[in-house]
Amino acid sequence: MRSADLPSAPGRPVSPKGEDLIDADQVARQISLDQARESRLVAEGTMDRIRAKFGLDSVGPAATARFRRAS
Q: How many other CB atoms are there within 10 angstroms of residue 47's CB atom?
């Protein structure tokens, strides 16, 4: 195999192999260094649970919310 503008070098093909695989729910949670991403993932899961319990319109952007005036 040769790519444009790359010097040729001997190489070996690499093939991944999976052994002793386990279910995803048995895997330890990977630590993330991106706290903003982790926060979004937690919020996403929370919103999904709220929608499952109270309906699809129960959570959404504040700009689209219909506010009721207090009487």
A: 13
The contacts of residue 58 (CB under 8 Å, 6+ apart) are: 50, 51
What's the pLDDT tens digit per position in 15-57?
888 888 888 888 887 777 888 988 888 899 999 999 999 998 8
Q: Which residue has the tokens 């903003």?
A: 36
> What is the rounded end-to-end Cα distance, in angstroms, of the chain?
75
Kind and range of the H or E run holding 40: helix 35-54
Q: Please choose, from the candidates 46, 42, 47, 21, the residue with its C-alpha nearest in 3D space to the C-alpha of residue 32.
A: 42
Q: What is the rounded CA–CA span in Å between residue 61 and residue 52?
A: 17
Q: Is 14 strand, coil or helix? A: coil
